[in-house]
């Protein structure tokens, strides 16, 4: 039996990069050697090769009923292929749609009403899944809460990669704590993405004694995530998550804006960020940073999720329930408790090594 058995809700671009990465890094051993794309070769006692998908759920007819190894390359997925994935013997099963498909996305996500949803909790139990990873589209409030409930019912840890507030909501956090099941969330902070770069620059400016007057971060991309977020109603929590993540690093009032700003189809899974920080130096002399960042969005996310999975399994092993605070602060944009990244990393390493357990 695999050491870490994962289930995935939403077989989109992020799931594709994660599954490809499990194959790509399958031969990495425990060592201090720097491996591009990894924060930890081994984490605790776990390697990436210890992670095994055992269940997957989606609603698109082009993916439901197919092997996970095929579904990750099915339309409308458009992220880069960097690994050949062998047959996995994991069938993608139909989940409940609920609000997972926005009205303006029906041409992109093809739902066959004749395909009946499975009993997700039963599948999670039968597959002996340790961790359920939520990759649903942004704005899927009802669907995310439904999957979080199925994780509780099945006894799974939960990693919430999108900005529906579960780990950072006290009512939900208490449910996982009572069930002695770990949760890490909310809204994944990519390996080297717009938010982590923005936070790092702001932390440096603040620590060096300059004064920030205003800052903004604009993001565009061409995948279904960006297409989905052209509906302002589904964008609300994303803007809150990104803006609060940046604003939390400024210890005084300053104008902060951060959020997606449109979909350009030809970009596919490439995400382009433009950020600007206006600040004052000695003598109130003005200065600014104007930066452009271009990244492949989904692999950037997967580089963090492989660590979140292993931390969740460590918490399961130790029978720790509720939000894992240092992991959420380091891996996520909207954690239950915001920290400076250097502090979050230090506390995360302490947690991995058996110290600094959540209360």
Describe the structure in your own words.
- This protein is α/β, with parallel strands linked by helices and about 350 residues long.
- About 35% of the residues lie in helices and about 20% in strands.
- The protein contains eleven helices and 13 strands.
- The strands form three sheets. It has a seven-stranded parallel beta sheet with strand order 5-4-1-6-7-8-13, sandwiched between helices. Strands 10-9-11-12 form a four-stranded mixed beta sheet. Strands 2-3 form a two-stranded antiparallel ribbon.
- Strand 4, helix 2 and strand 5 form a beta-alpha-beta unit.
- Helix 3 packs parallel to helix 4 and helix 10 crosses helix 11.
- About 45% of the residues are buried.
- The model has no long low-confidence stretch (mean pLDDT about 95).
Write the layout of secondary structure elements.
Elements: E1 4-9, H1 13-24, E2 42-43, E3 46-47, E4 51-58, H2 68-71, E5 92-94, H3 120-126, E6 131-134, H4 141-154, E7 157-160, H5 170-178, E8 182-184, H6 194-207, E9 211-221, H7 224-228, H8 232-247, E10 255-263, E11 270-280, E12 286-296, H9 297-317, E13 322-323, H10 325-331, H11 341-352
Parallel strand pairs: 1-4, 1-6, 4-5, 6-7, 7-8, 8-13, 9-10
Antiparallel strand pairs: 2-3, 9-11, 11-12
């Amino acid at each position: 039996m695999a050491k870490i058995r994962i289930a995935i809700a939403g077989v989109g671009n992020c799931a594709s990069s994660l599954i490809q990465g499990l194959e790509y890094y399958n031969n990495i051993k425990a060592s201090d050697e720097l491996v591009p794309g990894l924060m930890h070769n081994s984490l605790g006692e776990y390697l990436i090769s210890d992670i095994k998908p055992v269940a997957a759920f989606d609603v698109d007819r082009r993916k439901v009923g197919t092997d996970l190894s095929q579904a990750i390359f099915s339309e409308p997925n458009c992220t880069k292929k960097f690994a050949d994935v062998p047959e996995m013997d994991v069938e993608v099963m139909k989940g409940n749609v609920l609000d997972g498909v926005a009205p303006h996305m029906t041409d992109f996500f093809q739902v066959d009403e004749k395909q009946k949803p499975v009993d997700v909790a039963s599948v999670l139990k039968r597959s002996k899944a340790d961790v359920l990873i939520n990759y649903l589209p942004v704005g899927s409030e009802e669907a995310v809460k439904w999957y979080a409930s199925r994780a509780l019912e099945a006894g799974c840890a939960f990693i919430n990669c999108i900005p529906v507030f579960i780990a950072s909501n006290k009512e939900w956090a208490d449910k996982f704590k009572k069930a002695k099941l770990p949760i890490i969330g909310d809204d994944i902070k990519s390996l080297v993405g717009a938010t982590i770069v923005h936070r790092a620059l702001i932390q440096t400016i603040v620590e060096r004694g300059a004064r920030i007057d205003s800052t903004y971060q604009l993001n565009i991309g061409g995948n279904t995530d960006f297409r989905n977020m052209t509906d302002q109603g589904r964008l609300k929590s994303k803007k809150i998550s990104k803006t609060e993540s940046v604003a939390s690093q400024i210890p005084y009032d300053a104008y902060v804006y951060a959020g997606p700003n449109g979909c350009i189809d030809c970009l596919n899974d490439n995400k382009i960020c433009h950020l600007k920080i206006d600040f004052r130096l000695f003598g109130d002399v003005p200065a600014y940073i104007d930066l452009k960042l271009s990244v492949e969005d989904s692999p950037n996310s997967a580089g963090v999720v492989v660590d979140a999975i292993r931390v969740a399994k460590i918490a399961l092993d130790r029978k720790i329930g509720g939000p894992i605070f240092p992991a959420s602060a380091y891996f996520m944009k909207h954690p239950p408790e915001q920290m400076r990244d250097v502090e979050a990393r230090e506390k995360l390493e302490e947690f991995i090594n058996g110290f600094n357990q959540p209360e």
